[in-house]
Amino acid sequence: MAISNPLPFVSIIVPAYNASRTIRMCIEALLSQSYDRNRYEVIIVDNVSTDKTPEIIKEYPVTYILEDKVRTSYGARNAGIRAAKGEIIFLTDSDCIPEKNWVSAGITTFSDQKIGGVTGPTIDYQPENKLEKYIAEAKPLDCSPSFRPGKMPQAFTCNVAYRKKIFDTVGLFDASMPGGGDVHMSWQMQLKTDYNLVYNPHMIVSHKHRSTYKSVFKQQMRIGYGWIDVYIRYTDHINKEPQKFLFLPPHHLRIKSLFKEIGTILWAPIGLLQTIILGKDNTPLFYWTVRYAGRRIGRIKGCRHYKTWHLWNW
Questions:
Q1: How distant, in Å, are the alpha carbons of 94, 192, 269 from that of 62?
Q2: Pairing label, strands 10-16, 88-91
Q3: pLDDT at residue 99, rounded to an integer
Q4: 264 in a structural domain
Q5: Is 5 domain-assigned?
Q6: Tell me, what DSSP letter sits at residue 313?
Q7: SS3 state at 50
Q8: How sure is the predictor about 307, in pLDDT bands with cuts at 50, 70 and 90?
Q9: Structural domain that includes position 86
Q10: CA dist., res. 17 & res. 24, Å (int)
Q11: Which of 16, 163, 235, 302 has the highest CB neighbour count under 10 A?
Q12: What is the pTM of this model?
């Protein structure tokens, strides 16, 4: 079915869990879109928050859904998709602030009937401390390299839109995945349908980065575990075309990189002493230490669970 003209109805879906710090900014940005307000709905799915998130959501003219059966972000997104009325589903996160023209920019892409999904830049939102500032410089949510020739494009759920029919064809997000479900969905669309995933540089979202090392560690551990899940699902594709699905240097360089990570982690106690005694700013060292450690521990857990130890997982 072609998109109706001139303006298709859009559903914007946001999962939220204990998001009182950022959900207000997110909702206000969504309600202030330049797109015709009568042509889109905002659906916020609360995943059983224990803070003030539900109360804040209910202050606004949005659809509130409580997902208390499947307590994962993908389960919350699925609940939103099921309730959505739109021809196009826009997805973002509760710690994101889409720019005013986010929907308008994204919707123009779908005039091409060969396009099933679109993503764009996710930039940093006003860092408040040294850790947030450094994470912004590291650009952890930049998926644009996957759109280079010879690569399999991927999109993250902080900033992506799909035709709703995509979910009818390939199914909803796998709510059992701890992470990587967004990459899984974007690859499923490209492998199981004739639709393309494209990158629109004008479809911009700002992301409020993690503000503590503890939250970075938990996030990276989830990402590491999720990657093993993705690897298991795409083993045949990865083994056949590793450079297409992954961003891998030759094995000997990956081993070198692994030793670099180990060295960084071992150096961290010395860096901590430098900070305490000399007042040296070692934010980059601490960030990479926590990121490396969290992701490796997550991958070890994933490898143990799935009983796989291929070097690509490292």
A1: 14, 33, 48
A2: parallel
A3: 97
A4: yes
A5: no
A6: G
A7: coil
A8: confident
A9: 10-211
A10: 13
A11: 16
A12: 0.84
pLDDT at 249 over 50: no
Query: In this structure, what CATH number is given to the domain that contains residue 95?
Result: 3.90.550.10
Distant-in-sequence, close-in-space partners of 108: CB < 8 Å, separation ≥ 6: 200
Question: What number is the average pLDDT over the span 158-169?
Answer: 97
List, for residues 259-280, the tens digit of each pLDDT value. Answer: 666 666 665 676 666 666 656 6
Residue 223 lies in a domain: yes
**What integer pLDDT is reported at residue 284 of this predicted model?**
73
List the structure tokens of 287. Answer: 């960030």
Distance CA 64, CA 203 (A): 25
- Give how many domains the chain has, as a whole number: 2
Q: Give the range among 32-36, 108-112, 179-183, 194-198 with minimum mean pLDDT.
A: 179-183
Of the three residues 190, 211, 232, the one that is the final residue of a domain is 211
Burial of 314 by CB count in 10 Å (0-12 exposed, 13-18 middle, 19+ buried)?
A: middle
Look at the block and give the residue holding tokens 């606004």. 60
Q: Does one domain contain both 16 and 133? A: yes
Q: Do 174 and 298 share a structural domain?
A: no
* pLDDT at residue 308 in the model: 75
Q: Are residues 165 and 250 both part of a single domain?
A: no
Query: Mean pLDDT, to the nearest integer, of 91-120?
Result: 96
Distances (CA, A) of 49 to 52, 158, 160, 232: 8, 19, 24, 31
31 and 173 co-located in one domain: yes
